[in-house]
Design a protein that fits this description.
144 residues; mainly alpha; elongated; 2 domains
Length: 144
């Protein structure tokens, strides 16, 4: 299995290099083909402009939200509040010295930041539990 994975990684890397070389060759061929009519500099500018415009269009299309931001994150606040409701008050007090109302307030103010913060805290606690307790405490106190 490991040999197959190595082979696939090598093939993917090789395919990427060959694909980039092909794109470069096609770009250069386009410049050479247009040189008799536009000159070398003009052909380079035209081909480069077409490539930049195509790349910009692709990036614009990829980053344009298909759903408005309000609709996309409309359920985040309620989901985070419902998740925090399952944690008992005494558990939350023991872990963070905060009450459930303070956590609900934090989720209402900054739902995405709270979810990200909890994810980072969980990762840090899993990686180094002894050193991350102070960091988590400072981070949670700043979110309030």
């Amino acid at each position: 299995m490991l040999g197959s994975l190595k082979l696939r990684v090598i093939l993917m890397a090789g395919g990427s290099v060959i694909g980039l070389a092909g794109a470069g060759a096609l770009t250069w061929a386009g410049v050479v083909a247009l040189t008799p009519w536009l000159g070398l500099a003009g052909a380079g500018v035209l081909v480069g402009s077409v490539l930049i415009a195509g790349g910009g269009l692709a990036m614009w299309k990829a980053t344009r939200p298909s759903v408005p931001m309000e609709e996309e994150f409309s359920g985040v606040t309620s989901a985070a509040t419902n998740t925090m409701a399952y944690i008992r008050d005494d558990t939350l007090d023991a872990l963070t010295d905060m009450s459930l109302s303070a956590v609900n307030n934090m989720v209402d103010k900054r739902p995405i930041l709270t979810v990200l913060g909890v994810g980072v805290a969980a990762y840090a606690l899993a990686r180094a539990p002894n050193t991350s307790a102070g960091i988590v405490d400072r981070m949670l106190s700043r979110l309030i």
